TrEMBL record:
<protein>
    <submittedName>
        <fullName>Iron-containing alcohol dehydrogenase</fullName>
    </submittedName>
</protein>
<keyword id="KW-0560">Oxidoreductase</keyword>
<feature type="domain" description="Alcohol dehydrogenase iron-type/glycerol dehydrogenase GldA">
    <location>
        <begin position="10"/>
        <end position="179"/>
    </location>
</feature>
<dbReference type="GO" id="GO:1990362">
    <property type="term" value="F:butanol dehydrogenase (NAD+) activity"/>
</dbReference>
<dbReference type="GO" id="GO:0005829">
    <property type="term" value="C:cytosol"/>
</dbReference>
<dbReference type="GO" id="GO:0008106">
    <property type="term" value="F:alcohol dehydrogenase (NADP+) activity"/>
</dbReference>
<dbReference type="InterPro" id="IPR044731">
    <property type="entry name" value="BDH-like"/>
</dbReference>
<dbReference type="Pfam" id="PF00465">
    <property type="entry name" value="Fe-ADH"/>
</dbReference>
<dbReference type="GO" id="GO:1990002">
    <property type="term" value="F:methylglyoxal reductase (NADPH) (acetol producing) activity"/>
</dbReference>
<dbReference type="InterPro" id="IPR056798">
    <property type="entry name" value="ADH_Fe_C"/>
</dbReference>
<dbReference type="GO" id="GO:0046872">
    <property type="term" value="F:metal ion binding"/>
</dbReference>
<feature type="domain" description="Fe-containing alcohol dehydrogenase-like C-terminal">
    <location>
        <begin position="190"/>
        <end position="390"/>
    </location>
</feature>
<dbReference type="Pfam" id="PF25137">
    <property type="entry name" value="ADH_Fe_C"/>
</dbReference>
<dbReference type="InterPro" id="IPR001670">
    <property type="entry name" value="ADH_Fe/GldA"/>
</dbReference>
Length: 393
């Protein structure tokens, strides 16, 4: 196990009707003027919008609204939000929605105190400072894990660039998590979210760091819990117990608890951000396409087989073939593909409407024109990436 620092100060307020406490909690945390940020129509249809407005009014908290966050959230709205915060003297951001809404607030939160264009922070050109407008959220979609993570991902729609930045100060002050709020998720969003949760677990799990048994076991628990409960909620969307399990997994897969003390990979996220930058597909759908293909590619790399086989045995109950562990590894991939198909997610780029025209550009972007490799568990060259993209096609 490697040495590490870990600090996660987000207060988790979990359970039925917890959203009704948002006004009092914001006040307790020192808010005096709030910007209520949300996406499209889902919170109005579910009635959550009205409950939030009432909770803020009951707490006597003045607030302004910023609707219109879209999936793969845009920097243009972040800029608009920053201007609004400055104009209205906002001292707390309240995100109500999924990862895109929370990420928009996180980017705004640091952008308010930065004199230049916020894209300097998002693109990593300038490091975020110590000052930020605090963020809280009411989570409606277990997926990105942004409710406790220290990072955010934003797209520049004019250049098709999707990238992110982070800071230890970026974790939300508190996150309200009521699994009932996820009953309205369409099956496709539910499945995309669960795939993203599994991807966050797997980006950390596939590592060559030795002696990380505790975090391995926690990660395996997260993966098996999501696999089991995804099937339950696809059958019965209002199963509270199953929705609660998935919601908790989503947070703990991405708050970096399971990343402590080990090298992490993140190749699949890098690749997915490239693809969704160009094609605007759901993040979880992109990961459903890339992860099994990535594993299949790694079946050809001897040093990767033992961990792929361990994953197949412990997560997918595959039988260990000691004479041929590659066969065991391939069984795990087959079972992962089975779940993805059953959940209605795409397994190939063509199923997601993505062609081959950007393959070269994607490989260039990920390796800086072939000058470096990408990934930790296995270091992909530019040619490797092109081979993998063909396998995903
Ligand atoms: O806009 P509305 O109408 O609210 O609809 C949303 C949206 O269309 C809908 N939705 C959310 N909750 C719902 C609901 N529909 C019905 N009932 C509900 N309860 O779901 C759609 C997708 O929402 P979005 O926020 O985009 O999804 P998600 O939470 O998966 O977030 C994805 C974004 O997070 C980034 C991704 O790259 C992507 O941009 N990520 C952020 C990370 C982080 N900050 O730590 C890490 C992740 O790996 C990821 O990269
Ligand atoms: Zn993700």
């Amino acid at each position: 196990m490697n040495g590490f620092e870990f600090q996660c100060g987000t207060k988790m307020i979990f359970g039925k009707e917890t959203e009704l406490r948002v006004g009092e909690e914001l006040k307790k945390q020192g808010a005096t003027r709030v910007l209520f940020v949300y996406g499209g129509s889902s919170i109005k249809k579910s009635g959550l919008y009205g409950k939030v407005v009432k909770a803020l009014q009951d707490a006597g908290l003045p607030f302004d609204e910023l609707p219109g966050v879209v999936p793969n959230p845009r920097v243009s709205l972040v800029r608009k939000g920053i201007a609004l915060c400055r104009e209205k003297g906002i001292d707390f951001l309240l995100a109500v929605g999924g990862g895109s809404v929370i990420d928009t607030c996180k980017a705004m939160s640091f952008g308010v105190y930065y004199d230049g264009d916020v894209w300097d922070l998002i693109s990593g050109k300038v490091k975020p400072g110590d000052r930020r407008v605090p963020v809280a959220d009411i989570l409606t979609l277990p997926a990105a894990g942004s409710e406790e993570s220290d990072s955010c991902v934003i797209s520049d729609e004019t250049t098709h660039t999707k990238t992110g930045f982070g800071s230890p100060l970026m974790r939300p002050v508190f996150s309200i998590m009521n699994p009932e709020l996820t009953y309205t998720l369409p099956p496709y969003q539910t499945a995309c979210g669960s795939m993203d949760i599994m991807a966050h677990a797997m980006e950390r799990y596939f590592s060559h760091t030795q002696n990380v048994e505790m975090t391995d076991r926690v990660t395996e628990a997260i993966l098996t819990t999501v696999i089991h409960n995804l099937s339950v909620v696809l059958e019965k969307p209002d199963d509270y117990a199953a929705r609660a399990e998935i919601m908790l997994c989503g947070t703990w897969a991405q708050n970096d608890m399971t990343g402590c003390g080990r090298a992490q990979d993140w190749f699949n996220h890098g690749l997915e951000h490239q693809i969704s930058g160009f094609y605007d597909i759901a993040h979880g759908a992109g990961l459903a396409i890339s992860f099994p293909a990535w594993m299949e590619f790694l079946c050809g790399k001897e040093e990767c087989i033992p961990r792929l086989a361990q994953y197949a045995v412990r997560v997918w109950n595959a039988e260990m073939n000691f004479d041929n562990p590659e066969e065991t590894a391939r069984e795990g991939i087959k079972r992962l593909r089975g779940l993805i198909k059953e959940a209605g997610l795409p397994l190939t780029l063509s199923e997601a409407g993505v062609g081959k025209e950007k393959f070269e550009e994607i490989a260039d972007n990920m390796t800086n024109g072939g000058s470096h490799t990408c990934g930790a568990f296995y270091a992909f060259t530019r040619d490797d990436i092109l081979t993998l993209l063909e396998m995903m096609a």
